[in-house]
Amino acid sequence: MARPINLRTSMRSVTIKHATSSSSSSSSSTSSYDWTRQWYAVSWVTDIPLNTPYKTTLFDVDYVVVRTPSDVYATRDACPHRLASLAEGRVTTDGRLQCAYHGWSIEGDTGDIHVPQAPRGKVPCATMYPCMVKGGLVWLLPCEGADAVTAPPPYVPEELEHDDVAAGVVRDVPIDFSLLLENVVDYDHGLFAHQVSGFDLYCGSLDHPQEVSTSYDADGRFEVTMTTKALPKVLETNSLSDTASPLTATAIFKSPQFVSACRFDDEGKTSFKTVFWLVPTGVGRSRFLSKGYAPGKKKGLPRWVQHLFINRFLDQDSHLLVTEQSYVLAEEFKAAAEKKPLKRDRVYRYASPGEKLLAAIGKWLDTTVPKQPGRYDALKSVAALARIAPAFTTAPREITLDRWSQHTAVCADSQAMLRNARWLACIAAAAAACLAYRGVQVLASQGGWYCVAHCAFSAVCLFVSAVSAWIVTEFSGFRKTALSRDADLRRIPTLFPDQPGVSHSATP
């Protein structure tokens, strides 16, 4: 039977301690945080086709990335000539990015502009932004000049720094970066939104609290580390825990976008690790990049197979975050209009001992989110307001959970599988029909095992066609209906049984 949380006494656990930096120095570093002087993972390498312009977005600013066999470069997605989208253009045989409107082209290494109509004319160079490949990801630094030189290098775990890292998960979600980050490090929600008992090992309790520390690494990145014994906290038992020699569950956030989670033994070894890079594409929208791996092992399930499960997993709580977002952003923008700071511990009600990590990151977000480039342009510009308006409303789940626009359209492997599945479904269905027709003819003329064989092969083809059609539906549109949501809700009591008459509210 599940053990209820005493919310009245659990608030004693929500305290933050600083590991290697004092409170005053941490506050000073956070207040001067510059989002533009940070490297951002914007895509998996395999999702950017060679010699094809690729559009990506950071802080509501569109960039175009070009990957050639020997280089990768980026510039604003607006031609210096007439501001047409360069992502609609092409890459020339010598690697220049050419606008489709008037043919102006840009040298990737220098930014020099070639004008077909004036080959001897002098045109100012285009602004190029630092770009690199590391850990299987394409990284973009949205600044230039001296700031680019002094920016800390992009962070990937040491075991992923080699060149042949397999691509992981990608999904564009209509969720603000701040809410997505809080969701990823909120382990209390896993038992209810996802019905997965493993989340309980990362939660906190009075007996086994989350130990949280904040610091700055050698490159000046803000870091929050949480550790706790990998034992049941909310549930009485957990099949994933090892009570004889409990592991330590840990979660780490490194600014601006990296999160990792794993369970390790006394020697610091882990059998599996999950890492995330959360991309702040704009107000009310983000890109979710993630990868789960076993250190020392390079092979895993095919990427499209992983996405079959991960998309279902993300569908379970993404719409809930959208329903929350309109209220939180309204509070934030109201505070900005009144020139007041937003305090998340006043907007939310922190009550669980499993929210210590959330509280620590929330304090960092309170100070740094207002410094995001163009964050509050909507308070001064009608055009900016129109761009972010959808973030302040709750769209139907058919829109907030559309898998084609959010995932398949930006994942090369899923696109390829979708094409193959469509062809296979048609071919298998046609083969089944032909075999069934031939089976009827054989039955009339010969009978016996020949007919049975034709019917058996026809059934196999029908099965292949049905599976292929199912894969098509998984990658091509909306799947998480209200009926599917209700089925999830019915699974909650299997982990956390309903307890009539038991109150979980704090006493006034």
Automatic annotation (TrEMBL):
InterPro entries assigned to the protein according to its UniProt record, in alphabetical order: Cholesterol_7-desaturase (IPR050584), PaO (IPR013626), Rieske_2Fe-2S (IPR017941), Rieske_2Fe-2S_sf (IPR036922)
Transmembrane segments: 423-441, 447-472
Domain of life, per lineage: Eukaryota
Short name of one Pfam family: PaO
Keywords from the named record: 2Fe-2S, Chloroplast, Iron, Iron-sulfur, Membrane, Metal-binding, Oxidoreductase, Plastid, Transit peptide, Transmembrane, Transmembrane helix
Molecular-function annotations in GO: 2 iron, 2 sulfur cluster binding; chlorophyllide a oxygenase activity; metal ion binding
One GO cellular component term: membrane
Residues in Rieske domain copies: 39-140
Database matches in PANTHER family: CHOLESTEROL 7-DESATURASE NVD, IRON-SULFUR DOMAIN CONTAINING PROTEIN
Name by which UniProt lists this protein: Rieske domain-containing protein
Organism listed in the record: Pycnococcus provasolii
